[in-house]
Specification:
Blueprint (H helix, E strand, L loop, with lengths): L7 H19 L2 H18 L7 H8 L3 H36 L6 H10 L4 H10 L1 E7 L8 H19 L4 H20 L10 H34 L13 E2 L13 H27 L12 H8 L3 H13 L4 H14 L12 H17 L3 H18 L5 E7 H13 L10 H13 L15 H20 L6 E5 L4 H14 L2 E2 L3 E2 L2 E6 L2 H5 L1 H10 L1 H8 L4 E7 H8 L1 H21 L3 E7 L11 H6 L9 E7 H8 L2 H24 L7 H22 L4 H8 L2 H5 L21 H10 L10 H11 L3 H11 L1 H16 L2 H8 L4 H25 L9 H25 L6 H18 L4
Parallel strand pairs: 1-2, 1-10, 2-3, 3-4, 4-7, 7-8, 8-9, 9-10
Antiparallel strand pairs: 5-6
Helix pairs in contact: 1-4, 1-8, 2-3, 2-4, 2-37, 3-37, 4-7, 4-37, 4-38, 5-9, 5-27, 7-8, 9-10, 9-15, 9-27, 10-13, 10-15, 10-18, 11-13, 11-14, 12-13, 13-14, 14-15, 16-18, 16-19, 17-19, 18-19, 21-24, 23-24, 24-28, 28-32, 32-36, 33-34, 34-36, 37-38
């Protein structure tokens, strides 16, 4: 059976033609001709038909403001459409592989591998009870598109799906093409630049859209595949347990963002609960339509009694249901469940306390249906709903609170100072002693509600903890049960949050803690001193009690972005790998369960890349089964915007974690060969020195500002959070996202590879058989293989010839001193990586090479137009808008921002 009607080439060709018609209709004739001329000149150079880019630069440089605006808009929209065509091609491949039963790295494949390895059902059950994969959505500003634009693109995607997957008459196909033309015309004539920054609640709503409209419906499919694979491969298969959960920072991450207030968090919690309950109501109303069984033929009271009886309120609801559906017991029970869901947010009594209570009633209903032989209704209607309730509860996604450790220290210094306690004047050991004594005593030290005399920053911190107790009361502790501390450097930074939670009543020493306190280790000093920081906390009386109250589990977050910005790609990756091993040793020494939280971004330099590869590359001793990682910006849209792709992403994550957990159980404490460790140490040291030497070159910040569109990016209104932590113009205070975004625009992408060539060279110069050892490391060590493969991808995306054009924007002396170092390191890194990996091309996937070759000729005109505009000391308002549009267009073409 042919599943599809179209191909990616047809989609691209027809979308390009439609866009051309729209551009021609809405622009002066010369505009369309110059757009076509720029496209053709770029293609001619890329295909070797011309020797230089002068014709392209001449076309771009001679245009009027109006024509350049058309050029920027046309190529930007072209990439948005091509991205949809490539997404459709990925869906085609997934559907075809599923139909053939050949899809790799799937949940089914993971179960087959376990069975082939001889794993017993009991072992598989233990693996599944350990595995808990937790994608955590953040509001980090890496999504360059407006919400309105995304909505139009979703319409385009739906039309492409209909054309590809539906059997259409000629008339129906013609109508769809006409609709597609209208939507593309709308896309072209829609404003693409935001007038204002999104508010934090806008960002929360954006994350909630993916949870509500895509992920919610995919979860039952994930569990259905897992259950089918278990039944196929094992006798007496285990229950799949609770293997997936979703969390969010959107609306609760206040680190560097004063706009995330307690009011925003409160609105976010309310809306997430409303969305989850609305979906449950829809499912229950759908279920009512198939539960018309005659009560005279069934006897299920023993199963349904727990639903129909209990508190007087429940019995009253049951009486009303019985009057409405006489002799239809299953409808009566479902009506009671539906009414109790309705009352969760109502002042009326009888609503469910939490998702667990709803789950119990759904289980009772399922048992009653099964007793009457109605298992098909259970599997099609009740089991999917149970899986959704199990995954999303009444909160849709649990929130993590987050703030910078400096905010807590400042707030305590001010609040305790009002109580004549000189916290600011204490040293580290004195702070630890004071906080421990305050937590273990019964009387409170602070009244968090009394904050009228304090600065706004301190008042917000105190209010956040004061409201946390209320949120636990109203939404349940699971709704917001983790607090992440950015830039943790000392044990006191963690104890400060424990103290504030204790003052709020969220912690009650020694038996109760409603909060996981999560130190974020991201600087070299914090990662190097992890044993001192974490070990001191484990030995602390107050913190030890709180951790025991949280099932002896310690969550620790690792920051990939700032580690890379501080140390460079190779050194940061090795430092993080060693830190994970060190943390596993520390927690093992103290008998504590470790849960690692990987703060990954979308780009290679910020920990991005295929998530299944990343999970398999983690040190085995850290794979406890629980893993948590951030998903942000354009990565959320790319992975979770389409239901079929979302299912694939989740399946790959679970495949990797199941395999990794099984490997850990089989060989829990692998030891790296010492020569490998020595090789990495030497390469990382030199790579870091090379990278730091570049950043510390006199005038480097000026070079960065002159040769990238960083200032334009900072004004793009991508997110509610400022681009820098302070007004200082230095690399340290610039956030990692705009740092990577800017280098990606100029096609240099140094955060993804700079230093790796020098590091490898230094090692090879000292070791006779070094190259053979590095090849063996690549062959046998997932960490090393993934690191080099990701560096190869960053090198492949780099276009040094175009980067050299951006370099001409710098002052002559800066260009002469800095660009040659970048260019030389690029050539060195490319050569050394290709010396080690067993292939001739940096890109090892044919589809990716095809995509890069397809995109590059269309990105080039945008790059050269951006260079022209950046070279002007004064730009008109029209030119400024066009410059911003080139940033969005290049981001769409590169499929990457920060």
């Amino acid at each position: 059976m042919d599943l599809h009607n179209r191909s990616v080439r047809q989609d691209i060709r027809e979308l390009g033609a439609l866009l051309g018609d729209v551009v021609s209709a809405h622009s002066p004739p010369e505009s369309f001709e110059l757009v076509e001329s720029a496209r053709n000149e770029a293609i001619a150079y890329r295909r070797g038909r011309t020797d230089d880019r002068e014709p392209l630069t001449s076309v771009v440089g001679s245009n009027s403001e109006a024509v350049n605006a058309v050029l920027a808009r046309s190529f930007t929209i072209y990439f948005q459409l091509i991205n949809l065509a490539e997404e459709r091609e990925r869906v085609r491949a997934l559907r075809t592989f599923r139909q053939q039963g050949t899809i790799s790295h799937s949940i089914t494949e993971a179960m087959e591998n376990l069975a082939e390895s001889g794993a017993e059902a009991e072992t598989v059950g233990q693996i599944l009870s350990d595995v808990h994969v937790v994608p955590t959505f953040t509001a980090h500003p890496t999504e360059a598109r407006r919400k309105t634009v995304k909505g139009i693109l979703q319409r385009v995607g739906q039309i492409l799906e209909d054309l590809d997957e539906r059997r259409l008459t000629n008339e129906e196909e013609t109508a769809l093409i006409a609709r597609l033309n209208a939507v593309v015309e709308s896309l072209y004539t829609t404003k693409h630049i935001r007038d204002r920054r999104p508010e934090p609640f806008d960002e929360a709503r954006n994350v909630q859209w993916y949870l509500d409209n895509v992920i919610f419906d995919v979860i039952p499919e994930i569990y259905a595949e897992l259950e089918a694979a278990l039944e196929e491969n094992f006798e007496d298969p285990p229950d799949p347990a609770h293997v997936l959960e979703f969390r969010s920072w959107a609306g609760s991450d206040a680190d560097g963002n004063p706009n995330v207030t307690p009011e925003v968090t409160d609105k976010t919690l309310h809306r997430q609960r409303s969305l989850a309950l609305a979906r449950y109501r829809e499912s229950l109303e759908d279920l009512l339509g198939v539960l018309s069984q005659d009560g005279t033929r069934v006897d299920v009271d023993t199963y349904l009694d727990t639903i129909m009886t209990g508190e007087s309120t429940t019995e009253s609801i049951a009486e009303t249901a019985a009057e409405r559906y006489p002799r239809e017991p299953f409808r009566q029970a479902t009506t009671v469940i539906l009414e109790r869901v309705d009352r969760v947010e109502s002042v009326r009594p009888g609503g469910y306390e939490d998702g667990e209570a709803l789950l119990e009633d759904l289980s009772a209903l399922a048992a009653g249906l099964s007793a009457e032989g109605l298992d098909s209704i259970v599997s099609e209607f009740v089991t999917p709903l149970k899986r959704q309730v199990q995954t999303f509860g009444f909160h849709l996604a649990s929130l993590d609170l987050r703030d910078h450790r400096q905010q807590h220290t400042q707030a305590l210094s001010e609040a305790l100072g009002a109580e004549d306690i000189d916290y600011a004047g204490m040293d580290e050991s004195e702070r630890q002693e004071f906080l421990t004594e305050a937590i273990t005593r019964s009387a409170p030290v602070l009244d968090l509600a009394d904050r009228g005399e304090f600065t706004a920053e301190t008042a917000v911190v105190l209010e956040r903890f004061d409201r946390l107790a209320d949120w636990h009361e109203e939404f349940g502790p699971d709704s917001i049960d983790a607090y992440c501390i950015s830039m943790t450097e000392e044990p006191s930074h963690v104890l400060e949050v424990l103290f504030l939670a204790d003052q709020a009543g969220v912690v009650d020493y020694p038996d109760y803690s409603g909060l996981d306190i999560v130190p974020l280790l991201e600087t070299e000093s914090a990662l190097s001193n992890a044993r001192d920081i974490i070990g001191t906390l484990f030995e602390n009386e107050a913190y030890g009690a709180a951790m025991r109250a949280r099932d002896e589990t310690q969550e620790i977050m690792l920051g990939y972005s700032d580690s890379n910005k501080e140390n460079g790609y190779l050194a940061a990756n090795w430092q993080l790998d060693r830190a994970q091993r060190r943390l596993a040793e520390i927690t093992d020494d103290y008998g504590v369960e470790l849960r690692l939280f990987h703060g990954r971004g979308g780009t290679i330099s910020r920990g991005g890349g295929p998530m299944n590869d990343a999970l398999l590359a983690l040190p085995k001793q850290t794979v406890t089964g629980e893993v948590k990682f951030t998903q942000q910006g354009e990565a959320i849209s790319e992975k979770y915007g389409n239901a079929r792709i979302a299912r694939r992403e989740m399946g790959q994550m679970l495949n990797a974690q199941i395999r990794a957990r099984h490997a850990n159980m089989s060989e829990p404490d692998p030891t790296l060969p010492e020569p490998w460790v020595e090789a990495m140490d030497e390469m990382a040291d030199t790579a870091r020195e090379t990278y730091r030497s570049l950043l510390e070159t006199e005038g480097f910040v000026s070079y960065f500002e002159q040769t990238t569109p960083i200032k334009t990016i900072e004004g793009l209104n991508l997110g509610s959070r400022p681009a820098s932590r302070s007004d200082e113009r230095n690399v340290e205070d610039l956030r990692a996202i705009p740092w990577v975004f800017a280098w990606t625009q100029s096609r240099a992408i140094i955060p993804g590879w700079f230093g790796i060539g020098s590091g490898i060279d230094a090692y090879l110069a000292e070791t006779d058989d070094g190259l053979e050892r590095l090849k063996a490391m690549y062959e046998s060590w997932p960490f090393f293989q993934t690191m080099l493969d990701n560096a190869a991808l960053s090198l492949a995306r780099t276009e040094m010839e175009i980067a050299s054009e951006y370099a001409t924007l710098a002052d002559d002396d800066l260009q002469a001193r800095i660009f040659p170092a970048i260019e030389n390191e690029y050539e060195r890194s490319k050569e050394r990586v290709l010396d080690i990996i067993p292939r001739e091309d940096l890109v090892d996937r044919s589809w990716l090479r095809e995509s890069l070759d397809r995109r590059n000729p269309y990105v080039d005109p945008l790059n050269f137009l951006q260079i022209q505009l950046l070279s002007r000391s004064h730009r008109t308002p029209q030119e400024e808008r066009t410059l911003r549009l080139t940033v969005k267009g290049i981001a769409a073409g590169m499929k990457n921002t920060g």
